[in-house]
Amino acid sequence: MHRQPMYRVINEDLAAQIQGGVFSSGDQLPNEHDLAKQYGVSRMTVRQALNLLEEDGLVARRHGIGTFVSEKSRRGRRLNRLRSFSEELGSAPDNITSDVVRAELVYPPKDVAEALELASDDSVSRLTRVRRVNKEPAALQDAWIPYSVAPGIVREPLIDNSLYRTLAERHGVALRWADQSMTASLLGKEEARSLGIEPGGAVLHGLRTTYSTENRPVEYTRGWTLPEFPLLLRIEAE
Amino acid sequence: MHRQPMYRVINEDLAAQIQGGVFSSGDQLPNEHDLAKQYGVSRMTVRQALNLLEEDGLVARRHGIGTFVSEKSRRGRRLNRLRSFSEELGSAPDNITSDVVRAELVYPPKDVAEALELASDDSVSRLTRVRRVNKEPAALQDAWIPYSVAPGIVREPLIDNSLYRTLAERHGVALRWADQSMTASLLGKEEARSLGIEPGGAVLHGLRTTYSTENRPVEYTRGWTLPEFPLLLRIEAE
DNA sequence: TAGTGGTCTAGACCACGAG
DNA sequence: TCGTGGTCTAGACCACTAT
Question: Please, what sign has the CA dihedral across residues A11, A14, A20, A21?
Fold first, then answer.
């Protein structure tokens, strides 16, 4: 019956209406009671949909007042939900390209083995990509995936340049959550060569371990992002 | 009756039990039905509490299996919820100190005026602090608060070294959410002098605009964090 | 099959903010 | 006062996973 849960359908419908200009910045949405009637669901279900919109920064709720469309967010990588690089950027995907600079089957170095809970003689797929926005290098991403999770992923091109889409659609791996750390570092020689820029500049250095719905680590990525492409985050109060 | 909503009471009780070792890493929590009976609430209310624990990375749910305590998180600043610096670090507050290096009433530069929606002749409180962990400099935070939001905040010491606690308890300002950007940069001379370290190193550079429950910007902070103190983030799937 | 979390109902009352 | 979002009930059925 519900291929997708109703709250997700409603969330996507309202998000599309906001992105499509049916509601503009500052507009008030219909109240929760009316939305429930309109979609033929209970108010609790509407609230689940609105919670997602709020976490994504698309709407802001005001107790006693109403729910309002937020100002159009600045360009940037929104990290609030687990998304592909291009979805994070929110740009037209035309401007975003991906060059695979390495795709091979190897044994994991220590940090990778630890993050992915592997032995040192377990095979791992390593996929290194340069992401560009309008042809300018934006980030280097060095992803490691246990061989058993996605056999052959290094042998075929990714679906739509998206590792996450490929894991989901070709290998049936559903992602659930990720632990990400971020710090600053100076760009090393090897990474600079891959990016085609000078080494020594400040870059955002991220480490991400992504877990499947079975809570097994399925991807570990080291990323270096140039400072022109800041990460954005919406943080809620407790 | 409910000074705090029940789901928050349950959330804090379970969090305390996990932090206090009643449940250890990998332990399974009682199922939702039993928790509901135990706390005398409905299952939906228990689920609200568990959602918060999951977003904070304290537990992981597995559909059809159960809810389990996550591995003890590494030391680091968890950015998933709007918290004070010491709460983000999660360390014993003894190790964290705060030196106020600037506290004055000024007119806002352009970026501050824009973020806080002020005119160039509106007064702003500027509060610059060096945060240290075990006496080592960890971050420089340059906070700007509209004078009208918290008059006199530069004239008195902060409550418990916490800007957020002071805003809440002394000025009645309840924070709701923040937009944060993060990028990397090289530490400038002035910031290096405040931190007492050499300039030119890579640092995490953050900009945060914090909004009150009335969705008015009440704080804009520029932050420079040394790479030894990475930010951590739990990211959920869509 | 048994037990778990995921979704959803059809209400109720409370808390907040504007007029 | 009135309309809004915030919290909560007491169930129901579905989807998933292990056995």
Answer: negative
